[in-house]
Every structure is written in structure tokens, then in C-alpha cells.
Amino acid sequence: MEVIQSATSEAESWRLAQITPEVTEENSNIPTPKLLYRPPQRPFCRFDASWKGDDARYGDGLVIENEDGTTTFGSLASNRTLSPLHAEFGTLLWAMKSSLTLGHESMAFESDCLQLVRLIDEEEEWPSLMAEFDEFLTLLSKFLLCSISSVSHLKNLRADRLAKGARSRDFCFSHVNSEVPTWLVLDTTWLESS
Prior knowledge:
Elements: H1 2-17, E1 44-50, E2 57-65, E3 71-79, H2 84-101, E4 106-111, H3 114-121, H4 130-140, E5 145-150, H5 157-167, E6 173-177
Parallel strand pairs: 1-4, 4-5
Antiparallel strand pairs: 1-2, 2-3, 3-6
């Protein structure tokens, strides 16, 4: 009975999270709040996940802009997760671990997944993400300064492409380096933008 109640609660949470407001003529003139642009503090890490329902794997991508102006790129292909939100949370955890491994004690994490940012900011309870929350809190305690905020998809294109490139591979792997391997992304012109 407990499993059925938990599954029902999880299904309802997922259903509510998928609701997007309809734009009608009545409310189309209502100004929507815009995210204020502020220059990113360095170091910052933009991350993204790529998840498709029928794929055996999901991909993670990260781009770290270091204090000295250098850039670190990361891609990870991992076995499929339950949902896109699980993939985004998993990507945040991987980005946090990678940042710590690279010696960063402070990091501003940025995601274009507003649902994840709100979930963490508002400390919402989502039963199927409890293990991720526990790991998040453990990793968070290892940083001197750490933040997570939302960023537009256009500002997150490099992480998005790294995630999609990782998902398209037929094997699991992890790569974090100042260079992106050519086998991962054939067109590297996008690496210079966003």
C-alpha cells in the first residue's frame, strides 16, 4: 500500500510539473517576469542534460568558465534515468563533483532547467529525488560558496550541444578537459559562442 501511495504521489507531482500556462488573448498582454541579466561571476558552470524517452542513455554537458578566463568542457553519457528532471539533477551532481575534482571551492552553477532551479530553491519534496537531494546536500557542504540559478537556453547552447553529443554515443563515458574530442562533436564552431 505504501508503494502505491508513493507512486500515486509521484505521478501527481510529475503531472503538475508538466503543466504550462496557456497563452490566450486575455493574458498575452500581461508582462511576464524576466530573469534579470547579471554578468556571471567566475568561476561559473553552465550545465545541461539531454534525455529522450526511447534512448538507452542520457547525456550531460558542462562548460566551466574559470577565473583566469580558460574554459573547461565536460560530457558524460550514462544509462537512462527515470525522467528529464532526474537527468538534469544527475547532471548537476556530476557538475558539482567535477568542479570539486578540478579544485574549485566556489562555483556558480547555471541551468536552463527552471524546474530544477525552483525545486532546489524552494526545497520542494519529490519522493523519487530524495537520494539526489541527499547527495546534493553532501556535495554542497564541500563548497565554500555555491549557488544555482537559471540561465536562458541561448546562453547554455555549449552545454546543450555537449549533452546531445554525449547522448548520441553508443557507450557510457565521461570526459572533462579544456579540449573537446573531435569524435564527440564534429562541428566545433559553436564552442566559441554563448
